[in-house]
Amino acid sequence: MPDTQTHVPAITAPPLRTDDPAKAIGDLFRRLALASETFGPPAFERIVAAVLVALGRAALEEAEREARWRRERDARRPGEITAPRSIHAGDFDGMATGDPE
Q1: Termini Cα distance of the chain
Q2: pLDDT tens digits, residue range 3-48?
Q3: What phi and psi, each to the nearest 5 degrees, are found at residue 30?
Q4: For position 62, what pLDDT does the model report?
Q5: Half-sphere exposure of 12 (CA within 13 A, CB side)
Q6: What is the dihedral sign for C-alpha 13, 17, 22, 24?
Q7: How far apart are CA 25 and CA 31, in angstroms?
Q8: pTM for the full predicted model
């Protein structure tokens, strides 16, 4: 087992700042690989479990944030006139499309 002091700073460094999802995923896998080299199997299993819990929690928070945003966006305001969503998906000239026969 390598010296834990060697890899721990690289594993615990602040997240990589990038707009490239591939680089962010690569950084995550690099840190997991360093953790697997640094710690024994029981510790590595705990680290992976903690990463998965954190990923699930973050995904749930983002889903809730998006749901709140959609509710706020779609909420009716007093005096507001709205049209059914089906109108937005149809033909805007009010005429039926397609062959009637």
Answers
A1: 78
A2: 667 789 999 999 889 999 999 999 999 999 999 999 999 999 999 9
A3: -60, -45
A4: 97
A5: 7
A6: positive
A7: 10
A8: 0.65
